[in-house]
Amino acid sequence: MSKAITGFQPGFLWGGATAANQVEGAYNLDGKGLSTADMVPWIPKEKRGLGFAMDVTAEYIEDVLAEKINDRYPKRDGIDFYHRYKEDIALFAELGFKVFRLSINWARIFPNGDDAEPNEAGLQFYDNVFDELKKYDIEPLVTLSHYETPLALTRKYNGWYSRELIGFYTKYAETVFKRYKNKVKYWLTFNEINVITHSPYTGGGILVGQLPEKTKDQIAYQAAHHQFVASALATKLAHEIIPESQVGCMLARMQTYPVTNHPDDILEAQRQNDLNLFFTDVHVNGEYPAFMYRYFAENNVSINKEIGDDEILKQYPVDFISFSYYMSISVTTQGEREQVAGNMIEGAVKNEYLETSDWGWQIDPKGLRVTLRDFHNRYGKPLFIVENGLGAYDKVEEDGSIHDTYRIDYLKKHIEQMKEAVKDGVHLMGYTAWGPIDLVSMSTSEMSKRYGFIYVDQDDEGNGTLNRSKKDSFAWYQKVITSNGEEL
């Protein structure tokens, strides 16, 4: 009989995760073009709704470009990682990172997305970042597209609704694979690919208002098909250009529970989980699951495929599954219930057994174990948690210290459940906590929603020194990594 698994494997990839549009800044330097993220303004809290996700309009973009609107766009400045990457990577090394997840901003490499030649200054920047990581033996885990569609592709083609983006994306992917083939082993094709069904602008650079004759579902699922094909072709290219590479998909996992044990609630929760896992089904199994054909028929969705698409999906599945996990969702068919917010979800109701964060997100560590077991049982593929963390208000004491015990408690409980899942037999590759350094929020572009072990002196209005300092959670996570998850 084989020995029972008692903890994380040697070589487990501990680290942290960021996105270019939330940290880099330098939005108009060294030849970079505008991306869709550069058009997302800061939204005051009183103007947000539950499950907030902003879908920018064509008219809004044109007014911004014509300087008719004077909003603030915090992602254009980020936290100035572009100029401070050496300082930040040194702090990551001090934490003990084995891996750092970052994204390449497509518009920094191809400013318009469809340019004939790449921007050398942009390529050189990431060369410099990867070289700095190598100095500390930190593996880069690179996301090719993390809510950063070049704005010109949105204005000219309406983003991923157009099939033409497949060619532009694969050219971009081939360019960076060839450039960084000796520096990057781990790649992700699209960040939270399912978000395109919640916010087509965020996930696909799509202006839904430009297609009034189409339903949101029709637009989103057609665009998702184009991303599936692009992802498979990128996986093919990565394996050809970098034989030792590993390519993963990335899902915003929305683990869904029934509120009651009424059979209709159980079926609704199952249906929601299937709609979420449809995206990993395609990436892993290389085909559309049968339940989606019923969903498409019942919701008047028709996917336009070209000859050869199904074969491409089947031939080039991903090597591993990565995902974000922040909270679980509960649903019911049994009358109106109090709704809750979080991670662009719609229609979720309050789970009376869970606490909530400062932003109303339900905190469910055991749900992470459920998620890991479900992934493992459904696919049997290696898994990688590439986003997990607590967005919270932090108070800076008079001596500069930040006692973020709430963050330590959140992460500790989730890592405990990761360990339980590993004991259950789940093959878990690694864990990158979201926002190891404070960054600009994805949906609302605010700074006050902080995730980091490292504090950045900048407020929601963009004021501050940008100086970095360590929170109490810094020393705690450092110990977690040093002990390979044994000391929590």
From TrEMBL:
GO (cellular component) term, any one: cytosol
The organism's place on the tree of life at top rank: Bacteria
Keywords: Glycosidase, Hydrolase
One example of a Gene Ontology biological process annotation: carbohydrate catabolic process
SUPFAM superfamilies: (Trans)glycosidases
Active site: residue positions: E387 (nucleophile)
One of the record's GO molecular function terms: beta-glucosidase activity
Pfam family, one: Glyco_hydro_1
Stored PANTHER family: 6-PHOSPHO-BETA-GLUCOSIDASE ASCB-RELATED, GLYCOSYL HYDROLASE
Family the entry assigns: Belongs to the glycosyl hydrolase 1 family.
NCBIfam families: PRK09593.1, PRK09852.1
Name of the protein in its database record: Glycoside hydrolase family 1 protein
Species name: Metabacillus arenae
